[in-house]
Amino acid sequence: MLYVMEKRSKLSYLAQYASQIDKFRPETCCILANYYSMKCEHEKAIMYYKRALTLNKNCLSAWTLMGHEFVELKNSHAAIESYRRAVDTNPKDFRAWYGLGQAYEVLDMHLYALYYYQRATNLQPLDKRMWQAIGNCYEKIEQLDEAFKSFSKALSIGKVVHGPSDSNYDVKDSDEAEYTVEPHICYRLAIISEKLGNEKDTYKYMKLCFAQEFEWGVSDETSKARLWLARNALNNWKFEEAYELAKDLNHSNAHDIEEARAIARDARNRMKNQLS
Q1: What are the start and end residues of each TPR repeat (predicted)?
Q2: Second CATH level (architecture) for the domain 1-53+67-85
Q3: pLDDT digit string (tens) for 226-268?
Q4: Which residues are CB-neighbours of 138 under 8 A, at least 6 positions away?
Q5: Beta strands 160-162; 178-180: pairing state
Q6: DSSP readout, 185-223?
Q7: pTM for the full predicted model
Q8: Coil/strand/helix, residue 162
Q9: What is the DSSP letter of 105?
Q10: Between 20 and 30 A from 106 (CA), which of 74, 173, 187, 270?
Q11: Which of 259, 238, 235, 232 has its CA nearest to residue 247?
Q12: In this predicted structure, what is the pLDDT of residue 275?
């Protein structure tokens, strides 16, 4: 818990306290491993996880956590071995199945990754990260319909609904309920819709992605969505809308910023021509 909450000072105190009581207990080794992991000293963390397993081979979580450390070191093959030992010992550890998926995805073995992500999702079906991971794999292997379904599932799980005033507002109470979602999910849905030739859904998800800028702040995805919407508005003769969208695009790569400036200039000139 202290590790997840990033309470380094408290974790440091706990590690020191546990070491003074009994430094050869597997629990102490796991605490020390967590401490070194938080300090990004992954080799030391691995050493203590191995020591914990030497002291108690039934210390099940150590295999999974050691796999995470190998992933941080970009040692995918060692990570896979650790995660395999974890699922052999405890087939219900969704973190180990998910870790196997990540390790194989790093190796560009997307069919293997997909299989392991699906195993993780069966154990943790309401975790949007699982559905995003599955969607990424389907997109990589060009199964776009399945990718769209997976990202849609992630979107529905990740929605945070905002009502007019009540914190317990139910989305069913009004057709005008607003919600926030992760921009990345919206953007992937927009890109997949574009690949599928669905213009209506592409516009819908680009607009939804851009709307998240007010909740999540400016990001690469919201900036790309802004540019797409500006381009779309210009092509549909909505010059004022195109200008307003394009003129404020400052967070992106140089190519996108230059394109936005060109759209803003073009839209401004066309508005002047309409007035003259």
Answers
A1: 60-93, 94-127, 128-161
A2: Alpha Horseshoe (1.25)
A3: 999 999 999 999 999 999 999 988 887 889 999 999 999 999 9
A4: 114, 144, 146, 147, 150
A5: antiparallel
A6: HHHHHHHHHHHTT-HHHHHHHHHHHHHTHHHH---HHHH
A7: 0.82
A8: strand
A9: H
A10: 187
A11: 259
A12: 72
Alpha helices in the chain (DSSP H): 8-22, 26-38, 42-55, 60-72, 76-89, 94-106, 110-123, 128-140, 144-158, 183-195, 199-211, 213-216, 220-235, 239-247, 254-275
Of the ranges 28-42, 58-72, 86-100, 251-265, which one carries the lowest mean pLDDT score?
28-42
Encoded tokens for 168: 């317990």
pLDDT at residue 111 is higher than 70: yes
- 45-59, 79-93, 239-253 — most confident range: 79-93
CA 16 to chain centre: 34
Q: How far apart are the first and last CA of the chain?
A: 66
Q: Which residues of 201-218 are buried (b: 16+ CB within 10 A; e: fewer)?
A: bbbebbebbbbbbeebeb
- CA gap 228, 208 in Å, rounded: 12
Q: Report residue 245 as tokens.
A: 């969208």
